[in-house]
Amino acid sequence: MMRILAFIVLLNFCYSALAIESWELEAGVEVPLQIATRAKANFNSEFYATAGLGMSMDFLMGINSALVGGVGIVGEQTAEVVESALSNAIVVDLRGGWNLHRFNGLYVEAGYLLMMGGGGDVTVEQLEGAFGVEYSANPLQMSTASQFSIGSDIHALTFHAGYRWEINNNWLFNVDVGIIKPFMSSTTVDVESVVRGSGSINEATSVANELKSFSEKEIEDVYLSQLFIPTATAWVSWLF
User: Fold this and answer.
1) E strands within 117-228?
2) Which of 110, 141, 191, 220 could staple 199 via S-S, CB 3.0–4.6 A?
3) Which domain holds residue 51?
4) Does some domain include residue 13?
5) CATH at 89
6) Is residue 219 part of a domain?
7) Is the residue at 92 inside a domain?
8) Phi, psi for residue 5 in degrees, rounded to 5
9) Which residues of 105-122 are buried (b: 16+ CB within 10 A; e: fewer)?
10) pLDDT digits (tens, 9 = 90+) for 3-58
11) pTM score
């Protein structure tokens, strides 16, 4: 009997704490990752949940490349390949958070992020430089004029901490910093065109396919073992 009563009390507490009290619509920029909009459900407590949809624009991924390459998270040429692979991706961003105070003050968030459908062109020199290999030389079977493209989908854990201000009864402004850490990924490298070197076109095609397969495996390792993305975000929220 006591267990049943305790279970009923727990259910009542969860219902009271997680009942939705208000909603927010937000728009913001998370540098160097996405321009996004999201919906936020504020529960009848200091907890909340958000669901967002964004786009990893070219210029943001360029900043990302400069950041992660410049500070040594990955090599500069590897960062360029990552930039091409993730540019113009759709970003699905789900988070749960806790406010120190309801609409003012510090907050922390943890969540899940999916980047999918992005990609771009990449050169032979970029692929070889990123992964420290020379498929086009010794002997020169495939010309460096050959063209490749790369696209990646990544699943990542996200962690953010920030501060928010209540401008008035309906508008809020918040800023935060975060870390994005991929834990799963899928990458496709496509051979767009093959230009032969000193050998035949068949030899050049074989070399291109070897570089394609090698690059797909290596970039997966970069995502999972090396890459993390530091971010800074500003959001404007409409409370209703």
Assistant:
1) 120-123, 147-166, 171-193
2) 141
3) 19-120+150-187+224-239
4) no
5) 2.40.160.20
6) no
7) yes
8) -65, -40
9) eebebebebbbeebbbeb
10) 554 444 444 444 445 689 999 999 999 999 999 999 999 998 899 999 999 999 98
11) 0.86
